[in-house]
Amino acid sequence: EALPFMLGATVQSIIAIIVGSLIAGFISRFVRVGLRLPDDVRQRLPLLETRLHAFVPGVMTVVRWLVIAGVVVAIGEAWALFNFLDWIASEEGLNIAGAVVSAALIVLLAIILHVVVSSWVEYRLSTTVGKVPTAREKTLLNLFKNAFTVALVIFSLMLALDRKSTRLN
Fold first, then answer.
1. Residues 50-72: pLDDT tens digits?
2. pLDDT (tens digit, 9 = 90+) per residue, 81-104?
3. d(CA 141, CA 135)
């Protein structure tokens, strides 16, 4: 009985490693190549590409670590070290997974909202599109962007931590 188990676990482990390596390689290639925006968007929002280059590699690094964790879980499942599917189906597993996913989605949405609002302020302050902003508009829009960023960070962290604590209790 040991030989079929060993062969099956070895094949499953090799498949998990190959799939994980392909996905991680694709993510690494995407991060290296970067994100290229069309010229008209780059003209209207010159800082958007820089902003995206600041966030996208971090998000892709998290995704890469999730892929590695998935490969480790698949290998553990293949060798019967633990039963992840039964654990995740349990009440405790669902609570922990739900808390982590909720917190991650809140943080991701906050990052996207920050990029959108910063790009909107940049668009409004752009001298190449529309009318030239007055000094008052520049001051107020920059104050709005900073206040929005602080409020967004505080609100997102409170919401993410609240989701995590309510799910785990």
1. 888 888 888 888 888 999 999 99
2. 989 989 999 999 998 888 888 888
3. 10
d(Cα 8, Cα 44) in Å, to the nearest integer? 56
CA 21 – CA 117 distance, rounded (Å): 36
DSSP annotation of 133: P
Place of tokens 């998000």: 59
Q: Rounded CA gap, 111 and 156, in Å?
A: 10
Instruction: Write the CA distances from 43 to 40, 83, 102, 137, integer angstroms.
Output: 5, 52, 36, 21
Q: Which residue has the tokens 């008209």?
A: 40
Q: Which of 70, 104, 103, 68 has its CA nearest to residue 85?
A: 70
Nearest to 151 by CA among 119, 112, 121, 110: 110
138: its two tokens: 């520049």
Encoding tokens for residue 163?
């989701």
Tokens 């900073």 belong to residue: 146
Amino acid at 46: P
Asked if residue 94 lies in contact with residue 88, where contact means CB atoms within 8 angstroms, the answer is yes
Read off the tokens for 80: 């019967």
Residue type, 112: I
